[in-house]
Amino acid sequence: MDGADAGVRASWGRSRAGRELRKVGIRGQVGNLTMALAGIHVVVGVILFGPFLADIVRAGPGAGQAGWSFEMLAAFRFLVWAWPLYLLGYLARWAQAKAGRLPAALGWGLISVAAVSVLFGPVSGVWLVFPLGVLALAARGPEPDGRS
Question: Is residue 146 in some structural domain?
Answer without folding.
Answer: yes
